[in-house]
Amino acid sequence: MPVVNSAGRLVLAAAVCGGLLLTGCAAPRTAPGAAHGTHAERTATASPAAGAAAQRAPAVRPAELPGLGPATRSRVPATSAQALVVTGDGPHSHQSTAVLYERDRVTGWKAVSQPWPANNALRGWTANHRAGDLRTPIGVFSLGDAGGLLPDPGTRLPYDQSEEFNLSGTGFLGEPLEGSFDHVVAIDYNRISGTSPLNKVRPLGLPKGGGVWIHVDHGGPTRACISLRREHMRTLMRALDPAKNPVIVMGDVVTLAR
Questions:
Q1: Fewer CB within a 10 Å sphere, N or C end of the chain?
Q2: What angle do CA 148, 150, 153 make, to 5 degrees?
């Protein structure tokens, strides 16, 4: 059995320690974080990547009018910053819901009213309105003129107060029609904009109907118009601003989603 003297043991120990130093197992202790750089160094290294990621982040798109498909949205003029969207329950239903929206250049469209219950024509909706068909025309139409039997409630639209807005009789459900035309806003379907809602000139011809208004609700279906409860009608008239080129977008829920 070989014998190792004290000098030999010192030589062997020195050799082992040298090997450990070479392999890194006995590397000198360093301050926390030194192996990966200081906090400032790490931040400086990460900042360019973070900045690049931020630049790659997609821009937020302005909000669209909800419930409208691309075909309907394309018909809303780019110059319009107000839209009353009237969504019918179905193609043959006379019940619908109206919401007023306004558009911000950056954030897009935003509702500025609660959903308002509304009525449309007795037989629902049509994309090819004819006089007397008892359907409301589908489409996007401008809103620029108002009037009524009662004085102007504070609208910024031109307002024609006239006794000719008087209405009597009963509706399709036997409800009284009196007061329905106390306030109206003309829908620019087959009419000359910039004139009283009472103007009977029909640019598309008499067979295409006309006199389609937003008016005070009488508790039942209309012949072709949109009707809103009195308080909602007055709120709408005060909100409509000619400078925002207001429009009405109306139709049944399925058609509007196209």
A1: N
A2: 90
What does the alpha-carbon distance between residue 27 and residue 64 come to, in Å, rounded to a whole number? Answer: 63
pLDDT in tens, 84-110: 999 999 999 999 999 999 999 999 999
Phi and psi angles of residue 243, each rounded to the nearest 5 degrees, phi first: -65, -20
Domains and CATH numbers, the chain: 6-56 (no CATH), 70-256 (2.40.440.10)
pLDDT in tens, 2-13: 433 444 333 333
Measured distance CA(215)–CA(116) in Å, rounded: 13
CB 81 within 8 A of CB 103: yes
- 49: alpha, beta or left? (left if phi > 0; alpha if psi -120 to 50): alpha
Tell me the pTM.
0.78
- Rounded Cα distance, 226 and 216, in Å: 9
- Extended beta strands in 149-225, E state: 159-161, 184-187, 213-216
